[in-house]
Amino acid sequence: MDILTKLLSLLAPLALGYLLKKVHFLGAMDYRVLAKLALNITLPAAVISSFANFTMDYSLLSIIVLAFFSNWVALLFTYATTRRDWQDRKLRSLKMICASSFNMGNFLIPFVQQFLGGSGVALTALFDSGNSFMATGGVYIFTTSVIKADGEKVTLRDIFRKLFHSVPILTYITLIVLALLGTRPPAALVTIVQPTGNANAFVSMFMIGLMFEIRFDKAYLKTAFGILGRKYFCALLLALAFYFLLPFDLMTRQVLVMCAFAPIPSIASIYTEQIQGDVELASFTTSASFLISCGIMIVLMTTL
Question: Rounded to the nearest 10 degrees, what angle do helices 187-198 and 43-50 cross at?
């Protein structure tokens, strides 16, 4: 019953956001305000609170490297299995961009925060530290390099500029370094930011509700399901490897399993636009991945 209550507390804001958009109480683009609020205020506050009682083990730093290479599993698998699309470079690029990377801050952290508490959020922040390099441009650079799709060029310098202008990433790095030095955030700071951090789950899920849009366009379904099939097949392989092969404690392995099933990052639509690809298809696929990942998280919460 407790698990069901926690699930409803997460899904209710999502449903509310979607409902308020449909009745035109809020506009479809209002999610942008909430995205800024979540990424720059409530998410960093939640992460700061999570490190208040988190003890860093040096072996956990391997999660950062693990996250970086996890992106390559679906990226290379999609590259290898889309050779028949070699003439349609934009479509093949879209498939690679959408099949890779993981949405941590806006999607997974609220789930972890609600069910596993501060230590779970800290572990997710470690994973996102490695994931962000690929999500913010690494996938795009590789894709446009090997497919030779026309579009705006992104360099490694652009990636690092984005990373070091990202409030969540700067928060992760600062807290990880402090934890390695055996230092925790000041108690007074934790007390101040905790109420704001507690609001992160509501703000993030409400924002997803505003972004969420599924249109059953037959022209999109086959392509979208192909992308999602590749993504979640690779996610399953990663989850099994994380859970059964890694030498971490049970909670860490559970968090990593959840990370494997995180949905497509919203930024995939932006990179699709940069290659003059089908942005509506990318948005449709992203929304569908939110729905699928929600279902998977429900199953994971009730079994793990």
Answer: 130
Instruction: Give how many domains the chain has, as a whole number.
Output: 1
Distance CA 23, CA 300 (A): 32
Residue 3 lies in a domain: no
Average pLDDT in the 229-257 region? 96
pLDDT bin (cut points 50, 70, 90) of residue 191 is: very high
At 68, which CATH number?
Answer: 1.20.1530
* Look-up of token digits 């446009």: 144
Which tokens belong to 99?
Answer: 């099949």
Contacts 24+ apart (CB under 8 A), 6-12: 6/114, 6/115, 6/301, 7/298, 7/301, 9/114, 9/201, 10/110, 10/111, 10/114, 10/201, 10/205, 11/205, 11/294
More confident residue, 300 or 239: 239
- Residues whose CB is less than 8 angstroms from the CB of residue 148 and which lie 6 or more positions away in sequence, other chains included: 89
Quote the domain boundaries for residue 97: 8-211+218-303
User: pTM, whole model, 2 decimals?
Assistant: 0.89
pLDDT of residue 116: 84
Is 1 within the bounds of a domain? no
Alpha-carbon distances of 80 from 47, 96, 123, 194, 211, rounded to whole Å:
37, 10, 31, 45, 31
Residue 237 lies in a domain: yes
pLDDT at 57 over 90: no
Classify residue 2: in a domain, yes or no. no
Is 226 a residue whose pLDDT tops 60? Answer: yes
